[in-house]
Structure formats: C-alpha cells, structure tokens
Amino acid sequence: MDDATPSLPRVHDSARTMRTAVFRVTFVLALAVGGCADDSERPPALDDDGLTGTEGADEAGETEASSTTDTSPDPRPDLGASDDSAASESEDESSDTGGEPPPPLSPPLYPGGRVHSPITAATLEALAAIRSAAPAAPEDLFIKVGASSTVNTKTLYCFATEPVDLGDYEAQLGPSLDFFLLGDAGETTPFDRDTLAAEVGKTAGWAIDGDPSPVEAEIAAVHPEGSSLALVHYGANDMQQGLTYASALPGYHANMSDLLDGLIDAGVVPVVFGISRRLDQAPADLWVQSYNAVARGLAQARQVPFVDLREALEPLGGYGLSNDGLHLEGFPGGACLLTPEALEHGYNVRNLLGLEVLARLERALVDEAPSDPDDASVLVGDGSFEDAFAIDALPFADTRDSNDGPGVFLDVYTGCGSSADESGPEHLYRLELDTPTKLRALVLDHSGVDVDVHLLDASASEAGCILRDDRLIETALEPGTYYFSLDTYVNGEGVEQGGEYTFAVLACEANDPDCT
C-alpha cells in the first residue's frame, strides 16, 4: 500500500466539507446499489528507532490480519444514548429536602471488561471543575500526548487528510467528527496537527520534563487559550525503564500522576488510553494488565476518561498488532474507514475509540449530559474494620490518603513475621472469592509516603496476616474471604509516613509464573 498522504487541503473547513461530501457520495451509491438486487535482567529496550510517520507501526499494512471471530469489536454500548432528562436528574433536588443541598454524588468505579469508563453525573461535575480552570480554551480542540503510535499518521490524522467512511457510526459519530474538524489548531485541525508532545520511544516522564515541557509547549502552541482536551497514551516504553517490569511501575505511576495533574491544573481534561498487548516480549505481555490497572486507577481517581485499548482489540486476529508484535496495524484501504471489514484492524479500532471518546466528551462538556446511568458501581464502605471497602470485581483500583484512614488498630503484623511499625492509620478492603484466583496486588505512593500492603485472612487481624510488602503481592488464593490492609509505616523517629496511595488488585494472566 502507498502510505503517501493524498494532496488534500489541510484547513479544517475543507476537511469537513470533504468528509461530508465523501459520505454523501457513498450513501447515494449505496442507495443505488440497494435498489438493484517476569525477567531477572533489565527488559530490553523497544526497537523504536526510525518509527516515525507511517513507518514501523504501519507494517501491518503489508500483512493481513485474519479475525478469529465473526463479530467486529463493538464498543457502541459504552457510547451511551442521548437522554435529555439525564442531565437534569440532580437539578432542583433541594426542593425535596427543605432547601438543603443534595448529598454529594458518588464517583463511579471504572470496571474492567468495558472499553469506555463511565461518565455519570458525578463525572460531569469533575470534568466541569477541570474545565473551569481555563474556560476560554476552545471546546473543539484537543492535543495528542504520547509516543510512536501517537505520531503515526494512521492515528487520527486520516480523519482530516484522507477519505472517511464512518459506516454504521455515521449518525452517532459524524456530528462530533464535524465539530472537532472545525477546531483551529494552528492552521490545522487537531486531528492532523504534528504535536510537540509526542515522539517515538518516549515515556510519560519525557512529556513533563523541561521548561517548558513538551506538554506545556504544545498547550501554548496549539491555541492562545490552550486546549480543552488531551489524548494521553503511555506505558509500553515506560515498562522498559526498570530492571524488571515491576520495578519500572513506580516511575510510570509517578510520571503519569504528574502528567495528568499538570494537564488538569491547566484546565485540560486528559483522556487516558490503556496499552495493547505486548507480543514482542512474552514477559512484558504478562504485565500489560498491571500497567493498565494503574492507568485506570489514576483516571478513576480524577474522574477523567479511561479507554481500554486492549479490551477493544481482544476479538481481533493477532489482537490488531503488526508483525512486530508491538505496534498496531491498519486496514490497507485506510485507517479512518470504520466499516465492518476495516474494523478487523488495530488502527481502525483505535480511531473508532478516539472518535467515540471525543463524542462522549462533547456530550459531557458541551451538552452537559452524562453518557451512563447513575447506577454505575460505586465504592461501598468506609475502610474501617467494621465496614471495609468492598472489592466488588477485579480489576479494582482506589486512590486515597492514608492519613484519612479510619482505623489504627493494626500495628505489627505478627502473622507475617514482621516487626515493622505500621501504627499509622490504615484502610481495609474486603475481597470475596468464589473460585481459586491468582492475583497481583499493588500499592504505589509518592516520595515521602510509605504505605504498605498486607493480605489478611477472614479475621482481618495482625495474626491473620498472610503476606505483606512495600509494594507488590503476587499469590494464588482459594475461595474465601480476605482483607487487604493499606497501612501507614512509622519510621524510626516515630514519624508517620502517610499520604496519597494508589491501590490496585487484578487477576494475573493464566500463564504468569509469578502468581503462585
């Protein structure tokens, strides 16, 4: 396939006109036709050298991916249908409470098994609060932040530079595509702008390094008032930054936390994309879901969108990957074709997801309407011994401040043979298992904070400690009731090392040798 970009106008008005014209011609033709009848050594560095533009990640255009299923990936149930009454459900509730304000809305959990995280009324409040920091930023502008797959011209560029066929998604996504094609990103559309905040082989740490950082430079360059949204995709290169994939995870957590918080402080709503499978390195693939669990947890804590790319690609032959096992591959006819045949390819699915999340955010921020019902799962409990937080499903994530822990009952976990002073505040989480489960539990914190994770039996006691660690527990558990205690360490000077932590629990991959 010739990857050269057609000589099409790059001005947004022309791009929108071209897209609409292409669709209308296709539609008329269709009517006419229808009228007829884990490593011990440092993980090797990714071979990203020279993977710019359409190179490297476009290898899939040379190989055809055969689907293992007849069903194209269909994240449409996550998109949500319009419901004008939904946005007003929480309005004027004070009339039923004698003038008292309604209770605060509970933020939804971000469950596994779905492509798009929920956007409920509580999420709307969080998104609106972020945007209030830069209200003049154009609503139709987004920036792109990432590495090789972000700079590849098969990611989003083609919505502005090549013929587009949204197929069955035209009515659902066409208006949003037209809306964002009108975004003026420095004489281009946001789709085909060459972002300053993405480079081949880079990590989340690179994106926030320097003065200005690449992200700060891109926000300033894209428009005098900045951008309202940012599509963020890191993880694969970050996995390579430690002696093991486990040891690289704290750096990823810290850098992603700072990246997301920096965007939020600038009034930019970040969208966090999870990473796809790593068939280039079998040990790395066993850790993909752990990195995704952390990314999901960081997004959930801030109530910003999370897009599970791996979940969407699972039904595809070869998981939508090119023959390097790392980068995506695209439909030879074009990566912005969203027909059933085209959606058997990785870049096409990614572009569908990108357009879907933009549509969901347009609805949330412009129409001020949620995309999901307010009966989405929320965290139950208060973290105390009497009412531990309920881990209702795996994967699970929670971010909070250990200083707010309601209990100080667990001090020295004798059952684990530990003499460490954990007399600071703790939060308890309850896990009920119906079947044997291999799992990985992680706690990640920041500099100056030391929160440890302890796996307890049904007694939730110090003597009932099964395993403990500063950061990571990997084990296989039989059916039963278990507790996790996230407890604050007290140093030799008697100072509690409390602060914010992110706790994640997930089922290990079936063939993971570390979870035994």
UniProtKB/TrEMBL annotation:
Domain of life assignment: Bacteria
Compositional bias per record (Low complexity), positions renumbered to this chain: 63-72
One Pfam family it belongs to: Lipase_GDSL_2
Biased composition (Acidic residues): 46-62
Protein name, per record: SGNH hydrolase-type esterase domain-containing protein
Record domain SGNH hydrolase-type esterase: where: 207-328
Ranges annotated as biased composition (Pro residues): 100-110
InterPro entries the record matches: SGNH_hydro, SGNH_hydro_sf
Region listing for Disordered, in residue ranges: 36-116
GO molecular function per UniProt: hydrolase activity, acting on ester bonds
